[in-house]
Write a structure and sequence with these properties.
Blueprint: E1 5-10, H1 11-21, E2 30-39, E3 44-52, E4 59-62, E5 64-67, H2 69-82, E6 85-92, H3 103-120, E7 124-130, E8 135-145, E9 148-153, E10 156-160, E11 165-168, H4 183-198, E12 201-205, H5 209-221, E13 225-229, H6 247-251, H7 256-267, E14 274-278, H8 285-291, E15 296-299, H9 304-315, E16 321-329, E17 337-345, H10 360-367, H11 374-378, H12 393-412, E18 422-426, E19 431-435, H13 465-480, H14 483-496
Parallel strand pairs: 1-3, 1-10, 6-7, 12-13, 12-15, 13-14, 15-16
Antiparallel strand pairs: 2-3, 2-6, 4-5, 7-8, 8-9, 10-11, 16-17, 17-18, 18-19
Helix pairs in contact: 5-7, 5-12, 9-10
The structure holds zinc ion (2 copies).
Length: about 500
């Protein structure tokens, strides 16, 4: 039984629906849609894959709208053929924002929920389109008892592409009460944008030098719900670049994800703030599921396998991924240059593989453990990206800022522009290259794999030995502490979480 539900679609799909549902004569209209599930740890999302527009005579418009059983059966058969679920959307021409299900709509959708389940094997998804601002509302009709179907309202409906637009169900995701803490922020983009931003569930994958800065900025900006992923333990060599990490954290073998959650709670300006640390990699099944609960993800990792997994989440699960990276040229121990890049993987934009952010050949090398084998790494050429470890805090702040700016541009669209392409900054020339093309024509991510969700025919997750070893080493260290210390630490962590 699905208890937390949401829906998502590409901006292309949203545009097709808008063109059809927003009528010049101001009357209501409707359409069937097909959907596939994307299952997270606690939330299931219906990904709209197809709009089945009505043909001549398949619906009757008379101020409100009715559809014929022929239209329903045609769409349901199509859904069954494709292995999809069936959804039904109708317009409230004068509605704005989230549309709650009224009694008339409840009766109408309830009347074909059972048939939909029987024909497609999946529950009916009902959607409402608000004509005024092109907002969406959604619910899923699940069987409670024989012949008894009830709607579970979605928390939000997100539209992804150049811009990330989310219509939020205020009842399930209320806004934080206003305080003076965000006055300057709100004065920059207004309360409505602030409320939309605040309720995005944001994941940060990799709580290293860049990730920790991103977490700080998100918490201060007022984002209410953060999921923080890192399996690593903080070490002495991290201290020159890891915001908030102390020598004490090194001595206590703290997980980076926990340091990130701790500092996020201290920095948060939202009054109902939640930061959840995951001592996992997104390539592990539990990490992947937790990431699939997010609305948008920051990729602050430098390894090919998690990037490949995040690339799949961006296109197959419609969760935009804000990725970036730093390359320092320090041949011979002298700084010759540095570059940082920031871009967003999302439908209509170039994916991380097409941008050359990871080499698919290296994903397999990481999966089989080679990349964690010093002999393998030492066998690579000196200038191989996987060997290069040079970095300084200043470059991390630049890369974090570049990623954060991409995120803010995508969500707030300054001057109406949400997509400014992929960015590559060169330190030596102080120039910025922009890449505005989408994926290569033979790339599977933005076509074949798009919107497939759980049905994507690729296995990207697996056991991650380095992550398992890092966690095991931490618990070994902790077991060496005297019992009273362990109890005190447990107690503190318990109060924090
Ligand atoms: Zn209605
Ligand atoms: Zn691509």
């Amino acid at each position: 039984m699905i208890t937390r539900f949401s829906a998502a679609m590409t901006s292309d799909t949203a545009q097709r629906l808008t063109d059809h549902l927003r009528r010049a004569d101001g009357q209501e209209d409707c359409a069937f849609v097909l959907w596939r599930p994307s299952t997270g740890a606690t939330r299931t999302t219906a990904l709209l894959t197809e709009v089945v527009l009505p043909q001549e005579g398949e619906r009757i418009i008379h101020g409100t709208v009715d559809f014929t059983s022929a239209y329903f059966l045609r769409a349901a058969a199509l859904a069954a053929d494709y292995g999809c679920g069936l959804g039904f959307i109708h317009a409230h021409p004068h509605g704005r924002g989230w549309q709650r299900l009224n009694a008339v709509d409840h009766a109408a959708e309830g009347s074909f929920a059972a048939q939909t389940q029987v024909i497609t094997g999946r529950p009916l998804v009902g959607l409402t389109f608000a004509g005024t601002d092109a907002g969406f509302g959604a619910r899923i009709w699940q069987q409670q008892a024989p012949r008894s179907y009830t709607p579970t309202e979605a928390e939000s409906v997100r539209v992804v592409g150049g811009r990330l637009m989310v219509t939020v169900n205020h009842r399930l995701l209320p806004v934080s009460p206003a305080t003076n803490r965000q006055l300057r922020t709100v004065s920059a983009w207004g309360q409505t944008t602030q409320d939309d931003l605040a309720r995005l569930h944001v994941g940060v994958v990799g709580c290293g030098s860049v990730g920790m800065l991103v977490v700080e900025a998100l918490a201060r900006t007022g984002i209410q719900n953060l999921s923080l992923f890192d399996f690593d333990t903080v070490e002495e060599v991290n201290l020159d670049r890891l915001l908030h990490a102390t020598i004490r954290d090194v001595g206590l073998h703290r997980a980076k994800a926990r340091i990130a959650a701790r500092s996020a709670r201290r920095a948060a300006t939202a009054t109902n703030f939640q930061a959840t640390p995951y001592e996992l990699s997104v390539v592990e099944p539990e990490g992947f599921a937790a990431a699939a609960d997010c609305d948008v993800i920051f990729s602050c990792v430098d390894r090919p396998w998690p990037r490949a997994v995040l690339n799949l989440l961006a296109y197959a699960h419609l969760i935009p991924v804000v990725d970036g990276g730093i390359a320092v040229d320090a041949r011979g121990g002298r700084l010759r240059g540095a570059e940082w890049r920031a871009h967003i993987a999302a439908p209509g934009r170039a994916c991380m593989e097409c941008l050359g952010q990871y080499d698919p050949a290296n994903v397999q090398a990481e999966r089989d453990g080679s990349l964690d084998d010093p002999a393998y790494i030492n066998g690579l050429p000196d200038d191989h990206p996987l060997r290069r470890k040079e970095n300084v805090f200043t470059f991390s702040t630049s890369a974090a800022a570049a990623q954060l700016n991409q995120f803010i541009t995508m969500t707030t669209a300054p001057g109406g522009i949400a997509d400014t392409g992929a960015h590559l900054y060169h330190l030596t020339t102080a120039t910025l290259d922009r890449h505005e093309d989408g994926c290569e024509t033979d790339c599977p991510y933005d076509c074949m794999l798009r919107e497939l969700g759980d049905d994507a025919p690729v296995t990207v997750i697996g056991r991650h030995l380095a992550a398992e070893q890092a966690r095991a080493a931490r618990s070994r260290e902790v077991r060496r502490w005297p019992l009273r210390v362990r109890r005190a630490v447990d107690d503190i962590l318990h109060r924090l979480v």
